[in-house]
Design a protein that fits this description.
The complex is a heterodimer of chains A (423) and B (184). With 423 residues, chain A is mostly helical. Chain A is 78% helix and 0% strand. In chain B, β5 and β6 form a beta hairpin. Classes of the chains: A mainly alpha (423), B alpha+beta (184). Chain B: Pfam families: GDYXXLXY (PF14345).
Chain lengths: 423, 184
């Protein structure tokens, strides 16, 4: 950005748009401080990478399990890196050292705590499973989120909390422990909110993707034996995402900076497409067992989605509300119908998807938004492709339909292009 | 956040991190020094853990308790009371849902499995023996190789037990520690 501006300055001075003095001031503003902060950022990134690699290296060296070493040497090797990390971090806090110090010490301490627990349990052959190990490690490192304003601590916390959810939530007959994952995640929420208050925070922008992605990946901790509940949970979660994505905070942000809206809208459509198959309702609804934890999760997510929608109605006028914000509610009703009559539910989902596609195409055409128009057409196309799997249609007719959809894409975009040129 | 709170939080974190690992060391060292030693007959197999490295999983002969009582919940913990024969091998004294105040024998907590064929099945909690990376697979091979030849092989795990805490200290194959047996 600064290079573009400084390159344009001679031309601006020549044409008397700005004075020579102003041009000098602009050059001084962009050049000096930026160089310093950029080099600092680079050092911090290398510091974090270095500390992470050293920490992981220690874990791997320990994992070799040196039989020849006496037990006390192994124990010293376990505690030494952790105490070194604690001293380095304590020193950087006491002397108020630079962020480079703090970030590096934080990352090093994070991994050395893991290495210490791992080696101690290795020395005494403790059979504890991977879940309890990751949980102990994450909990012991949670204060790192707050003792320095380390950015890497948030990412490490998020990664390990998600990893914990992945190993506890997936698999057959898993123990569902949603509460612990949500407790871990909520520990980093105050840091997330404070990063949102910073202007142009790259960390906040990254977290707008990582946090919803973490919740999305970890949702299996909320259900176990009832596949039908999963549909409902995911839809309510997407409902929450879409409504958060519509908050005034995201109004001036690009779609790429709004992970909630992207994940919410794409996820909603994928889920609707999955449930547009009759088999999804026919087979996944056979299981009558629903656990208490699943009921609590469904109610919590539903109330959460209603709450964020309610907040949005305070900020937005009725006409400004997007239909995506209410799909979770419509799906909830169709789900209840599906419990009694699976065929009607399937038909309703297909109608809903078709309606979404048509509305998006119309909206795209009215406002000359290529992305919205094409998104609507992609939904209709996906719906048609999905129906190919249900019905017996000859290959020739399938081919012709595909061909006409492709031609349709070209023609619609071309008409839109012409319309845009006219305006 | 105020500097005092930061120091307080940092101090608590440092103490928690050290105590969490140090108490494991203390508890296990106490059991090794003053606990009773039992032998559990077993067979090893070799998987690995991404953080703690290679280990062998032990498959124990003691894995069920005959009982007509079918009221056991899958996944719950129960107290396994142990006795020891003249050669030091462990045998089951009794399995109880609650801690028995008047049973003088050593006990360990076990996770219950299913009840079938008149027996309640369970897993002993010390089925992981960490080994040097290069040796774990060889340990499994050594066991399988010996078994294939039809040689009667004596494999047992040495476990120290005191007040419910247990420490697995060695796996012995035909009188030699599995670490040394692999070297040969």
């Amino acid at each position: 950005m600064s290079l573009k501006i400084t390159n344009a300055l001679p031309e601006l001075v020549e044409n008397n748009i700005i004075t020579e003095e102003t041009a000098q001031k602009i050059i001084a503003y962009y050049d000096k401080p930026k160089e310093v902060s950029n080099s600092n950022k680079l050092f911090i990134v290398f510091g974090i990478l270095g500390a992470a690699l050293v920490g992981l290296g220690i874990i791997l060296i320990m994992a070799h399990n040196w039989d020849e070493l006496p037990k006390f040497v192994k124990l010293i090797a376990a505690f030494f890196p952790m105490i070194l990390g604690q001293v380095a971090l304590g020193y950087s806090i006491a002397k108020n050292k630079s962020m480079l110090w703090k970030e590096t010490a934080t990352v090093f301490l994070y991994f050395s705590v893991g290495a210490c627990i791992a080696l101690v349990s290795q020395v005494y052959h403790i059979s504890g499973n991977l879940e309890s190990f990751i949980l102990a490690w994450t909990v012991l490192c949670t204060p790192l989120l707050y003792v320095t304003k380390s950015k890497s601590a948030i990412f490490l916390h998020l990664i390990f909390s998600t990893y914990y959810a992945l190993i506890t939530g997936y698999g057959y007959n898993v123990q569902t422990t949603p509460l612990l994952y949500f407790v871990l995640i909520s520990a980093c929420i105050p840091r997330y909110i404070s990063s949102m208050k910073e202007k142009e925070s790259a960390i906040a922008n990254a977290l707008h993707w990582l946090l919803p992605a973490s919740l999305l990946l970890s949702l299996p901790v909320c259900y176990d034996r009832s596949p039908q509940i999963a549909y409902l949970l995911y839809m309510f979660l997407f409902g929450i995402y879409i409504n958060i994505g519509q908050f005034p905070y995201f109004k001036n942000k690009s779609l790429l900076q709004n992970g909630y809206l992207c994940l919410g809208t794409i996820g909603t459509i994928i889920l609707l497409l999955l449930t547009s198959f009759h088999d999804a309702w026919k087979y996944d609804f056979r299981y009558g067992v629903v656990d208490t934890v699943e009921v609590i999760s469904v109610i919590t997510l539903f109330l959460g989605a209603c709450f964020v929608f309610y907040i949005n109605t305070k900020f937005q006028k009725l006409q400004q509300l997007s239909m995506f914000q209410l799909i979770f509610l419509v799906f909830g009703i169709i789900f209840l119908i599906g419990l009694v009559d699976t065929a009607t539910a399937t038909i309703l989902i297909n109608i809903l998807l078709f309606a979404i596609g048509i509305v998006l195409i119309k909206k795209g055409a009215d406002h000359i938004q290529f992305s919205t128009l094409n998104y609507g057409m992609v939904i209709i196309t996906a719906l048609i492709i999905c129906r190919f799997y249900d019905t017996e249609i000859s290959f020739a007719i399938r081919g012709l339909i595909f061909l006409s959809i492709g031609v349709g894409f070209f023609i619609t975009n071309y008409i839109m292009y012409k319309k845009q040129l006219k305006k | 956040m105020k500097k005092t709170y930061i120091y307080l939080l940092f101090g608590l974190m440092v103490i928690a991190q050290i105590v969490a690992s140090a108490q494991i060391v203390y508890k296990h060292e106490t059991v090794i020094n003053s606990g009773n030693v039992y032998k559990f007959t077993t067979a090893p197999i070799d998987p690995s853990d991404p953080f703690r490295g290679k280990y062998i999983v032990l498959d124990f002969d003691i894995n069920s308790f005959p009982t007509t009582d079918e009221d056991w919940n899958y996944g719950e913990k129960a107290y396994l009371y142990l006795g020891k024969n003249a050669n030091g091998y462990a045998y089951i004294d009794t399995l109880s849902k609650t801690k028995l105040a008047n049973n003088p024998n050593d006990y360990i907590l076990v996770e219950l499995g299913s009840h079938y064929n008149g027996k309640i099945h369970f897993d002993l909690p010390f089925d992981t023996y960490y080994m040097e990376e290069s040796k774990a697979y060889d340990a499994e091979l050594l066991y399988r190789e010996n078994n294939r030849r039809g040689e009667a092989q004596e494999v047992y795990a040495v476990v120290h037990i005191q007040e419910g805490t247990h420490v697995l200290t060695d796996v012995v194959v035909n009188g030699i520690s599995i670490k040394d047996a692999v070297k040969k």
